[in-house]
Amino acid sequence: KTLIIGVTGGIASGKSTVTRAFARLGIPWVDADDTAREVVEPGEPALAEIAARYGARVLQGDGRLDRRALREIVFAAPEERRWLESVTHPRIRERLVERLAAFRRGEAPYALLISPLLFESGQAALVDRRLVIDVPEAVQIARTARRDDVDEAQARAIVAAQMPREKRLARADDVIDNAGDEAGLADQVAALDRRYRALAGLPGSR
Ligand code: ATP
């Protein structure tokens, strides 16, 4: 049976890089961030509900969601944020459940759910194993600053607002240490690939 591996990590920990490495080995994946964008595309009921509550100010000229405008509305209004989450989260979850069920019916030995908020969102309950990509905060801050062209103080503030490293690690079944170079990362992915294929072949594993 196809095992589902939940992959998580903080900002710039290497989730996309790790996903690409598994994808090169033929492993299918779904990204919770992509799914979150899909449920508010034009034609989706969640977008209609959001537009009904906030009006045209949250829509772009072409009818797509103006994420920045919406972010500004919910930023300082916890009740609005809760309302928005009550509209989007169940739909994201439903869609992820469908995708994961399709993976389980498929031929792959295992498949990935990539989610920055795997633990915070409750999505960890949808997977068989949890893989945490771990980097020291200093590395995370440096990679964020370089990639996103923000200064170190901003990068530090983003990291500080996320789940602490130790808490994430405490919930991990498997860990990738991504403090080193990309070759070291590829070796770790290859080792996990062997392990997950072996686990998927065992009777009693899901
Ligand atoms: P986010 O959730 O913030 O989008 P992410 O967890 O998907 O980030 P990546 O985009 O994979 O992280 O990596 C963050 C940055 O760090 C990228 O610029 C990537 O090229 C770089 N990076 C990732 N792994 C390594 C590595 N082992 N060595 C050097 N640079 C790396």
TrEMBL record:
<keyword id="KW-0963">Cytoplasm</keyword>
<keyword id="KW-0808">Transferase</keyword>
<dbReference type="Pfam" id="PF01121">
    <property type="entry name" value="CoaE"/>
</dbReference>
<dbReference type="InterPro" id="IPR027417">
    <property type="entry name" value="P-loop_NTPase"/>
</dbReference>
<dbReference type="GO" id="GO:0005524">
    <property type="term" value="F:ATP binding"/>
</dbReference>
<dbReference type="GO" id="GO:0005737">
    <property type="term" value="C:cytoplasm"/>
</dbReference>
<comment type="pathway">
    <text>Cofactor biosynthesis; coenzyme A biosynthesis; CoA from (R)-pantothenate: step 5/5.</text>
</comment>
<keyword id="KW-0547">Nucleotide-binding</keyword>
<comment type="similarity">
    <text>Belongs to the CoaE family.</text>
</comment>
<keyword id="KW-0173">Coenzyme A biosynthesis</keyword>
<comment type="function">
    <text>Catalyzes the phosphorylation of the 3'-hydroxyl group of dephosphocoenzyme A to form coenzyme A.</text>
</comment>
<dbReference type="GO" id="GO:0015937">
    <property type="term" value="P:coenzyme A biosynthetic process"/>
</dbReference>
<keyword id="KW-0067">ATP-binding</keyword>
<dbReference type="InterPro" id="IPR001977">
    <property type="entry name" value="Depp_CoAkinase"/>
</dbReference>
<keyword id="KW-0418">Kinase</keyword>
<dbReference type="GO" id="GO:0004140">
    <property type="term" value="F:dephospho-CoA kinase activity"/>
</dbReference>
<feature type="binding site">
    <location>
        <begin position="12"/>
        <end position="17"/>
    </location>
    <ligand>
        <name>ATP</name>
    </ligand>
</feature>
<protein>
    <recommendedName>
        <fullName>Dephospho-CoA kinase</fullName>
        <ecNumber>2.7.1.24</ecNumber>
    </recommendedName>
</protein>
